[in-house]
Design brief:
Immunoglobulin-like, 8 strands, 2 domains, 207 residues, 4 helices, 6-stranded mixed β-sheet, alpha/beta, two-stranded antiparallel ribbon
């Protein structure tokens, strides 16, 4: 979401869905912003890619690529990012514009990477650990709830339904975040917060 406000607005006919950024980078590594392009025509195409990447101390840095892609070829293009591209302390942002060519519309995409100053781990290790920890805590929470014995059975049933709904929302939000469906992820976050607050209020009211 931050990338929408950080970069210049580039109007386009569609979304560049093949654009990918690493989820997390740590201070011990660098990464790559990637785009996959498939030439399904019978001609050699040379689409232009206008790339903007956040830069420390600057508004952003701009890169242009104009690769020649043969008929039937699928090419993965990539641009390096590292700690020099960090802004706001913990973010690396990228925006890529793909020009129209041979009947294909112009596309634009944006993505971001969380940068963490933790040289002991790689971004993949940190992401896997956090994801596994979240799933473990969800399972632990359910285990403690099942093992408990609340005094009011009606309240317990109501709370169990709310917890089940919150679990589904949290899992859906996690899948959306991993898949890059940020509108769905934001929606799940808002629903989760509202459901948590309403459930707590209901429980306190019931005593």
């Amino acid at each position: 979401m931050e990338a929408y406000f950080y970069f210049d607005y580039l109007p386009a006919e569609g979304s560049l869905t093949t654009l990918k950024c690493p989820f997390i980078l740590t201070s011990r590594e660098s990464g790559q912003v990637t785009v996959r392009y498939s030439n399904t025509s019978s001609l050699t195409l040379a689409p232009q890619f206008h790339v903007q990447i956040s830069a420390s101390g600057l508004e952003f840095r701009t890169l242009d690529s104009n690769p020649s892609i043969a008929p039937g070829e699928t090419r993965q293009l990539h641009w390096a990012i590292d700690s020099q591209d960090v802004i706001f302390g913990h973010l690396i942002l990228a925006q890529v514009y793909q020009s129209p060519v041979y009947g294909n519309p112009d596309l634009v995409g944006r993505c971001g990477t969380l940068w963490v100053d933790l040289p002991q781990l790689t971004g993949r290790q940190l992401f896997t650990g956090v994801l596994a920890g979240n799933l473990l805590l969800v399972g632990l929470g359910w285990g403690l709830w099942i093992a408990s014995r609340p005094p009011k059975q009606g309240t317990r049933i109501d709370a169990t339904g709310a917890m089940l709904a919150l679990t589904v929302i949290a899992l859906l939000g996690t899948i959306a975040a991993i898949s890059g469906w940020w509108p769905v992820g934001v929606g799940c976050l808002v629903l989760g917060i509202l459901l948590t607050l309403s459930t707590l209020g209901y429980m306190l009211q019931r005593g």
